[in-house]
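Page header: ASSEMBLY MODEL / two components / 757 residues total.
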Amino acid sequence: MATLTGPAAPPLPPTPTATRALAGAGRAVRAGWWRWTIFAIAAVYFLVPLIAALEFSLRGRDGHRTIGAYGKILSEPEFGSALWSSVKLGLMAVAITLALLVPTMTLVHLRFPKLRRVIETITVLPLVIPPVVLAVGVLGAFRTAPQWLIGTPTILGFEYVILALPFAYRALDAGIGAVDLRTLVEASRGLGAGPVTALFRVVLPNLRTAVLSAAVLTLALVLGEFAMASLLLWDTFPSWVVHIGASEADVSVAVSLVALVLTWLLLMVLVTLGGRRGGRAFVGVLTGGTRDE
Amino acid sequence: MSETVARPAQDVRADATGPGELRPVTVGPTGKGSATGESSGTGGARPGRWSRARADGAARTGLDPRAEAVGIELRDLRRSYGDVTALDGLSVTINPGELVALLGPSGCGKTTALRALAGFERPDSGQILVGGDDISAVPANRRDMGMVFQAYSLFPNLSALDNVAFGLRLRRVNPRARRQRATELLELVGLGHAGRRYPHELSGGQQQRVALARALAIEPRVLLLDEPLSALDAQVRASLRDEIRSLQTRLGITTLFVTHDQEEALSLADRVGVMRAGRLEQLAAPEVVYAWPATPFVAQFVGTVNRLPGRTVAGDLVEVLGQRLPAVQLGDAPASGTAAVDVEVLVRPEAVVVTARATGTAAGAVDPTPQDPTAATRPVPITTTGALGQVRQRTFRGAVTRLRVDLLGLTARGTAVGLDGEPASATIVADIATAQATGLHPGSDVLVTLADRPVLVSDPAAAH
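Prediction written out in full:
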């Protein structure tokens, strides 16, 4: 057999595979060209304003560069409270959204598949209804609610749940569609799991990525939402940034950049927690753990 | 012949009570727990049983035959989804420790029956008895049944070991005990080395093995198998099938197996229940279902069957392909009287004799029954009665070769037999020993006769 495969073998003509590989390389080059063009356009679109903002925030009085604007952020009395208020509202919205959507969607998926269309339609509504109507409508609906709810920014948390509904629903729906939830839940029930156990031990761990996407989307939405807070006259981080911008433009821009980095960091933390190894531990902590190893 | 004639119709009832292996359907005084006793426990946990297991410690193995197996009875189950009737008064009795396979075409209600037993479907009416207790109102998570699904059902976020240990964890078995038990069960299904692997790292066959181990880990009273092999390739399917059977025999666990694959059902089950349109057509031992089908549907669904036009003649004889053979009435076929009645004759391919016609010598005789050792040495006389045919297709199947033969007419006695004026069945399928089939090729002229054995006869109207 060695003689057949040894060096004495005559050189082979280009095989169809090789030819195809060459053609493929040509396509890849062309595709690469397009990819780079699109990437460049996107980069310009996103980066130029950022760079301009950074340049503006570093501009001193007499043409010198200074980080004075960044120094002033911390001395602004309401910076911390506004940021903390937004983060609190974001976490609240995430908690309510997930607590509302995950069990509901699981139940609808497993028991009432016909209701899916209805639920889907309802979740699109916040995109269609203007924020003014939403804000005023929610206020009207909560008119008889206790003072701690409508008299504090907490009301915004509920408004944000509504705003985040379309995004969170779609993220979770994709996750539910990606696993055979029915079989998994039935398997767990056959092994002795009740509905609550099945939800925490089977549904949640297997929707980990989807749950995380829903949480990230909701949080990002809250941290950047201005219209609702402004309409309802509550100070959140975005409304404070706009407010500051009226008197101190450089600080406002500096704060915006800081907020961008902070939000990005927060999202990275969430994504890392939801990643492969750490995510299992993270979800394990949340669900009481199902692992023996 | 008369007692044989009566036999198929009685099979359903005779076997439902179980001929030899009937054991009293009783429940042990403790441990197994009645339906009400179970529901009082937390999440189906049975501390008594598992504290015993913990006390035994290492001595406990997954191979312990069950202390007592339970019997199952489905009584007159009905379930419909809108216009579709999935279960139409299904009644099945499974003896303790028995493996019953429900076999039927898709949509016949067999999976619905299994899911009703598991508690995933609520029948509109009827009763489900396990160990004598009606469990209709018990939720699925307290029914104490191990189930293996058709779809891959392992929890993707858990390793194989954790999957097997899942049910034990819910029963609050301590970590060391459940780990040990899960490891034993993985070894039992030949995957002791794969405990740390995740489902996506296992092949389909391995996943179903782990699923089986997971189902057995909770020491269920009943094992439910919902077409667990249908997603696997042929070789894996055959080996896993044999393993399931030997495990089930060793553990002595009452098992319901649902499949649309007749070979699987016939080779695996103690008794096979053939279902059609939500009802049980026949429930009997595989050999009985095959040889003495209760209805034309069973005859056609289980194995291949030739339907030939025939005519009853005096006594219990039927005339088919010019031969007179003893007739066995099938199901609700008209009782044979003295009057000649047109009937349909059902003949298995292995009962069809095909001999080369050109040579016409005794050397060309073909023995149709390789399973029958006496037949191999017996010279087969060439009868003058039979049908002339021409081989149309020849399919090699290993030990046997399947021939499809166009029937051209009868050798003798003139008239071709027809039903309602229609010509005789155009083709016939024959399985003959491959060694005997060497001279028979597409186009060969042949003589087709039937083995001199009783044939099944049914009312032609019922078969269509």
